[in-house]
Specification:
The structure holds two protein chains of two kinds. In chain A, 23% of the residues lie in helices and 37% in strands. Chain A is built from 13 helices and 22 strands. In chain A, strand 6 and strand 7 form a beta hairpin. In chain A, helix 2 runs parallel beside helix 3. Chain B folds into two domains: 204 residues, PmbA/TldD fold, CATH 3.30.2290.10; 135 residues, no CATH class. Helix content of chain B is 20%, strand content 37%. The radius of gyration of chain B is 24 Å and the shape is globular. Strand 3 of chain A pairs parallel with strand 2 of chain B.
Chain lengths: 504, 463
């Protein structure tokens, strides 16, 4: 286990790369890189403990990216052969030359150390693709049946997404990397349909992870406990009173806070957004480059890092898709913006303001058909070393809500205004939980919200949450990313009643 | 393909090879081959580009009532792919949506090769763009955007003799203009257009509309959250109606867990959701919005069934005279719920017979907001289909029939289904590009809608 799949290694990787790089050089490219990928994906869904779909797909392909006369060119194809590498290299050069009249900013790339033929494999124990699909169906059916056994559960939707990402990269500077990553996400949702109409749902909070099949069978996550509690939690939610809108102190569990970090810090500190490259699609950022080192992002308690090195992190890898070794760095220190997520071009272009001409390794392409763009590192809120537990945080709140699990999310094109819901909302009165509430959404502006951060929890509640489905770029690309954080306390956040938003 | 120097086999050939390798009771083979080109720009200069070939071969094997599906992009070991799908079928329990495979004739032209596009499809567009970049630069404006063209060829063959081939052209261009280049500050606006072959698209005309809208932003007006009379333009309506369409699975509704469920049991088919005269429909043969006239599914869901692969699609009404007439039904869900078979068709038209253009609706407005498009639309409450999202790239204040300035953006909370019941006016229906969902949903024809009380829940500082 934990070796690169032979199916990737059996492709003519080095031969195709050498031929492609040479053809690109011969055609006039000042830089070229060749990427070969073999992506395995398997999705299962069960509806009420019966298999609905089991799709299993292998995506193989070859991509050549070039810089010619300061302009990018890119071409890709599903056929990994020496001849195809040469054809694509020439085609990419032609695309660059055709595009040249439209390009006003010559592409220059940050110099990076050469990594000569290195291999990196993510941390997992059991390759999920080595497990008999029948065993997966059986486990998910068992879990579904446990939920369905409750009279409070009418429907159960279960899903398991699994990815094995094999990637080979070589460039004209001499870097050659071969890497493999595994990730998966099991998820179950229980639905209760009220006899007189209306319905309510409850979903597992187990995050997607960079682990193997052992995630479902080991003790990393307490599956048995979570599944055992869900029916009663769902029943209580169905009976819960609707929230009174207003300002509340929020104790936010890491199962919910990770997504708020993702949207309001992760995306806002992507340098391509801050520079406007995503202005027509994913959006820009209020955290513009001229504010590096001075923008008060939030409370001085805020310590936010970016990394692509945390074990089991979804963005974690050895080298990025430009051959840059991955690392860890500060994004917000003592509440002030101090860093961005970079790729080689942006690092070079903005070296003076950034104070460094080196990339921090955030280039990623989600398939051989797509060009690498700057994608999110694992952006995480660091716990306070001797910080409080979740119970201690709750005990310090007179009137508030403890929010568990993520659900609905939305944020504006400049990363100011957001609205989030969750799986469960517990009313806090006089430092104690008194029962669930319904129809809760919290709404805030990013810097106001982070300024209201009054206490960061300790390491005991720290959890690496995350998503497999983060979207960016055109053509659209999907990336997986993790976000760690402890339970934290925010004072006086605006809470809406979503039922009242609907009716008037 | 390793070491092979000849061209890969054609889609039709792959279908026949896989079918002849099949030992299952039934087999469907899907081959999709795509050819695409794209250009992306920001701040009046090119950012990325590319030309791409894509391929996916999917084998659906049926053994008894069980099904196994395997997909791959490589074609060097097709028999192994067929064997893998058969093994999966043998190991699977009977499928809930099991049914006979679709029968039918062979399409003429089935063996035709894949359609191909190239970067040269943008020759005229790129020249116009270069010209507009220079003009924007000298006028202190910033242009951002994306042009994409794809020709996607689908071959579908089955052990029942069915042979279908379809070529889907899909192109669009989006142009965002900023009153000053950079990430923030100043005004921002957007136009987008769907096209099949680029002959009907003028960058110069789109740029002129961008400039007209940026000029509206010369005066900035701050308005608080609240309910406003709002003109939702076709792109915004398409994003909202598209979401409602994707939530319209008949099976989910019958199970009591969507906005289309009738409290206490059954569905809301037959309910009056919108005003008389309002029609929501799909038609694969609608020429400007033409789309694949047969079902294709590489996996089953509440909206699709692998057993329905090849099922002929026709014009379908979802709303007639404002009344809900159908939900999305596979053959299996139709059997289960006693409904007609009304599969998903990949285009959407909303038409209320209105004749007023958006400009005419502006002229007839006392005081209200004119939106450009919506963004970051997410489901808040599935029971009412309450959605949240933002206004984006231009909210304009209309007073006494004229646009008098640009307003701050808002977060809104609204349900597209509830909105249909509160329409004050339905304008003329026209083709549009759904801004939020254009990655997957580009074929739409919508009217501008006048909503008397659109819920702008809070102010967004984004500009």
């Amino acid at each position: 286990m934990r070796a690169v799949e032979p199916e990737l290694l059996a492709l003519p990787l080095r031969e195709a790369a050498a031929a492609g790089l040479q053809a690109a050089r011969d055609a006039g490219a000042s830089h070229a890189d060749v990427r070969v990928e073999r992506l395995r994906g398997q999705d299962l869904t069960l509806r009420n403990a019966r298999l609905e779909r089991l799709s299993d797909a292998v995506t193989t392909g070859l991509a050549v990216r070039v810089v010619v006369d300061g302009t990018w060119g890119f071409a890709s194809s599903p056929d990994v052969t020496v001849a195809e590498a040469v054809r694509l290299a020439r085609q990419a050069v032609e695309v660059a030359r055709t595009s040249r009249p439209l390009n006003a900013e010559p592409v220059e790339l940050a110099d990076e150390p050469v990594h000569d033929d290195v291999t990196w494999v993510s941390a997992y124990e059991v390759d999920p693709f080595a497990v008999d699909p029948a065993d997966k169906v059986a486990l998910l059916a068992d879990w579904s049946s446990r939920l369905l056994a409750s009279p409070d559960v009418d429907h159960v939707d279960a899903g398991l997404q699994q990815v094995l990402e094999g990637k080979f990269y070589a460039d004209t500077a001499g870097t050659t990397t071969t890497q493999q990553r595994v990730r998966l996400q099991p998820r179950l949702t229980a639905t209760r349909v009220a006899p007189d109409g209306g319905f309510e749902t409850m979903r597992t909070n187990a995050p997607p992870v960079g682990r193997g099949w052992e995630y479902l069978t080991g003790d990393t996550w307490d599956w048995a406990g979570e599944l055992a509690r869900m029916p009663e939690q769902l029943a209580e939610k169905s009976r819960a009173p609707s929230v009174e809108p207003g300002r509340y102190d929020l104790v936010i569990d890491p199962t919910n806070l990770w997504l708020t970090i993702h949207e309001s810090i992760g995306h806002a500190t992507e340098l391509d957004r801050a520079l406007g490259y995503e202005a027509a699609y994913a959006g820009t950022s209020f955290a513009t480059l001229d504010q590096l080192g001075s923008l008060r992002y939030g409370s001085a308690l805020m310590q936010v890092t970016g990394d692509r090195t945390t074990p089991h992190g979804l963005s974690t890898t050895g080298y990025d898709d430009e051959g840059v070794q991955t690392q860890s760095w500060d994004i917000v220190r003592d509440g002030v913006l101090v860093g961005y997520q970079l790729d080689r071009r942006m690092a070079r272009q903005n070296a003076e303001v950034l104070g460094t001409a080196r990339s921090n390794g955030c280039a990623f392409a989600d398939s051989p058909a797509h060009v690498p763009v700057q994608r999110m590192a694992n952006v995480s809120l660091q716990p306070a070393p001797d910080g409080p537990s979740t119970d201690e945080l709750i005990s310090g709140v007179d009137r508030g809500i403890y929010i568990v699990g993520d659900k609905s999310w939305s944020i504006d094109m400049q990363r100011y205004n957001f609205q989030f819901t969750g799986q469960r909302f517990y009313e806090i009165r006089d430092g104690r939980l008194v029962g669930q509430l319904r129809d809760v959404a919290y709404q805030a502006t990013t810097t106001d919200f982070w300024a209201s951060l009054e206490a960061v929890g300790g390491p005991q509640s720290y959890l690496l949450g995350g998503a497999l489905n983060c979207g960016k770029a055109q053509p659209g690309q999907v990336a997986a990313v993790s976000h760690g954080c402890p339970t934290s306390l925010f004072r006086g956040v605006s809470v809406l009643n979503t039922a009242q938003e609907q009716t008037r | 393909m390793t070491g092979l120097t000849s061209d890969p086999p054609s889609g039709a050939e792959l279908v026949e090879r896989a079918l002849s390798a099949s030992r299952a009771d039934g087999c469907v083979v899907l081959v999709e081959q795509s050819s695409s080109a794209n250009l992306r720009w920001a701040g009046n200069t090119l950012t990325t580009n590319g030309v791409t070939q894509g391929r996916a071969v999917t084998v659906v094997s049926v053994v008894g009532a069980s099904v196994g599906v395997r997909s791959a992009t490589t074609v060097d070991d097709l028999p192994a792919l067929v064997r893998a799908s058969e093994t999966a079928a043998r190991e699977a329990e009977p499928a809930e949506d099991a049914g006979p495979l679709v029968e039918g004739p062979a399409d003429g032209g089935f063996t035709d090769p894949a359609a191909q596009t190239s970067a040269s499809v943008f020759s005229r567009v790129a020249a116009e763009l270069g010209d507009r970049f220079r003009a924007a630069g000298s006028d202190g404006l910033g242009l951002y955007g994306y042009a994409s063209h794809e020709l996607s060829t689908t071959w579908l063959g089955s052990s029942t003799g069915l042979r279908r081939r379809h070529v889907q052209p899909n192109g669009y261009l989006e142009l965002t203009g900023k009153s000053r280049p950079g990430a923030s500050g100043g005004g921002s606006t957007w136009v987008g257009q769907h096209t099949r072959d680029w002959s009907d698209l003028s960058v110069t005309a789109l740029d002129a509309e961008v400039r007209r809208r940026l000029a509206w932003g010369a005066r900035q007006v701050e308005l608080p959250a609240g309910r406003y009379e709002t003109l939702l333009p076709p792109s915004a309506v398409a994003d909202l109606m598209g979401y409602a369409y994707w939530t319209a699975a008949g099976r989910d509704a019958a199970e009591g867990r969507t906005v289309f469920s009738r409290p206490g049991g059954g569905t809301r088919v037959g309910d009056q959701l919108g005003p008389a005269g309002l029609r929501l429909s799909s038609d694969p043969y609608d020429p400007p919005l033409a789309t694949r006239p047969f079902s294709v599914a590489s996996a089953s869901s509440s909206m699709t069934s692998v057993f329905d692969n090849g099922l002929p699609l026709g014009a379908t009404d979802w709303l007639v005279d404002g009344r809900l007439t159908a939900l999305v039904q596979t053959r299996a869900s139709a059997r289960e719920t006693g409904s007609p078979v009304t599969p998903y068709v990949d285009n959407l038209t909303l038409d209320g017979g209105g004749t007023a253009t958006t400009d005419e609706m502006v002229a007839a407005t006392g005081r209200g907001l004119l939106l450009t498009c919506l963004w970051y639309i997410r489901e808040v409450d599935p029971e009412t289909l309450l959605l949240t999202g933002l206004t984006r790239d231009g909210v304009y204040l209309v007073e006494d029939g004229e646009v008098v300035g640009a307003v701050n953006n808002f977060r809104w909370n609204e349900s597209p289904v509830a909105l249909l019941g509160r329409l004050a006016e339905v304008g003329r229906t026209s083709r549009c590009l759904p801004r939020e969902w254009s990655d997957d949903f580009t074929r739409a024809r919508m009217p501008t809608l006048r909503v008397p009380d659109f819920n702008m829940s809070s102010v967004s500082q984004a500009s």
